[in-house]
Amino acid sequence: MHEFSVVDNLLKIIEKICQENKAKKVLKINLKINPYSCLDEDNLNFIFSSIVKDNPVYKDAKIKIKRTLSPTEREYIIEDIEIEV
Known about the structure:
This protein is an alpha+beta fold. The protein has one domain: hypothetical protein PF0899 fold. It is built from 2 helices and 3 strands; from the N terminus they run αβαββ. The mean pLDDT is 90.
């Protein structure tokens, strides 16, 4: 399941951002996905929710996914992260 490795990578990136900004909570993650990506949005959301459900920093976080209209070099891009400091 490719989505699991994507979520794992996302969490590593977000954790670093949280540490740098002394964030107490992650509220929203905005992702742009390449139109040719085979990532399944439902699976991505399900895996993310399953992994973070017991973590107080992420438990209320939502992933907002937007498929881009034009291809990019990357499969996905973290467009924005909404945190509570």
